[in-house]
Amino acid sequence: MFDTEKSTASAWFRQLRDDIVAAFEALEDSHDTGPFADANPGRFEVKETTRQSDDGSDAGGGLMSVMRGGRVFEKVGVNISTVYGTLGARAQKAMAARKGIPGMTEDPRFWASGISLVAHMQNPHVPAVHMNTRMFWTPHAWWFGGGSDLNPCIEYDEDTAHFHATQKAHLDPHGPGHYPRLKEWADEYFYIPHRKRARGVGGIFMDDYCTGDWAADFALTQDIGRAFLPAFVPLVEKRRVQDFSDDDKNTQLVHRGLYAEYNLVYDRGTKFGLETGHDPDAVLMSLPPMAKWI
């Protein structure tokens, strides 16, 4: 049931992963001026991840691709996974409370596939960024989720404008209401209540998205993914050559603390990954290599 749709979505997330990995390694190769230009270009280390059910049976897995210590990227992870099995009692309860899906207790099977990306940059002038897209299926319902948001420690209004304009251009063909709705959704989701501030300058985000038209919803999800590279890469190319001070680096490290707090306390993907037994190194890939609290 839904096998064709599942395999189509999973293959798309793999293709998007391949495109992003190639683009990021190309950024490493082309960085020949400015800070870190004399360093060796970074490369992704790729590791297969596996997941087992409580009875030891296969429950899926994926690819964890991480680059550390590059010219441009201090740490970036681009992970894909396709996992399946049965939801545990706590996950069932959480999903029933959030979505009101009947029948989860009687038949708690699930299937989920997606891509998740977080990039922490060498140069404080280059913004950190997050992106993910995913599909979730149960016998009782299916939905899509995902988005991307920009997390600069040193803000440039023109960079924020470019990031949002690119996302809007990719969403507008699906209807003029999508971008403002998903922007507002991102502003709400990526807010850090205990700090009373956003973690960045926003982007787009959706969750539990299902209109009943799988092809249309998948096409929207694809364009969320397609918007990422043209929204982000020009910002990297512009800012990676700028000199920075010790104060700039300190600002970056403190800002990374916000990111770590959010992901460990509020992020649904982190909670779901740990709750369902996925590789903790892959789940926690989003954490920065260094951060600072004051």
UniProtKB/TrEMBL annotation:
Gene3D superfamilies for this protein: Coproporphyrinogen III oxidase, aerobic
UniProt-annotated stretches for the region Disordered: 31-61
InterPro entries: Coprogen_oxidase_aer, Coprogen_oxidase_aer_sf
UniProt biased composition (Basic and acidic residues): 44-54
Pathway stated in the Swiss-Prot or TrEMBL entry: Porphyrin-containing compound metabolism; protoporphyrin-IX biosynthesis; protoporphyrinogen-IX from coproporphyrinogen-III (O2 route): step 1/1
Sorted UniProt keywords: Heme biosynthesis, Oxidoreductase, Porphyrin biosynthesis
EC number: 1.3.3.3
Subunit organization: Homodimer.
NCBIfam families xref list: PRK05330.1
PANTHER family linked: COPROPORPHYRINOGEN III OXIDASE, MITOCHONDRIAL (PTHR10755), OXYGEN-DEPENDENT COPROPORPHYRINOGEN-III OXIDASE, MITOCHONDRIAL (PTHR10755:SF0)
Family statement drawn from the similarity comment of this UniProt entry: Belongs to the aerobic coproporphyrinogen-III oxidase family.
Name of protein: coproporphyrinogen oxidase
Source taxonomy: Bacteria, Pseudomonadati, Pseudomonadota, Alphaproteobacteria, Rhodobacterales
